[in-house]
Write a structure and sequence with these properties.
By secondary structure, this protein is mostly helical. It has one domain. It is built from three helices and no strands. The longest helix is centred in the middle third of the chain and has 17 residues.
């Protein structure tokens, strides 16, 4: 599915596919874990990220 079609079917006209956002969150969580940081400490930051689930 191309980006224009994908964005047209999302509220807010997001251009970033859901799977890409999920990968980015996973990478960020893994990086925090590898650095020995608690993901919960960054919850207020992640709350500002757009919700792409469902």
């Amino acid at each position: 599915m191309d980006r224009a079609c994908d964005a047209a079917h999302r509220s807010g006209g997001q251009e970033q596919p859901d799977w890409l956002a999920q990968i980015a969150r996973g990478v960020a969580a893994a990086a925090l874990d590898d650095a020995g940081l608690d993901l919960a400490a960054f919850a207020d930051t992640s709350a500002r990220l757009p919700d792409t689930a469902g």
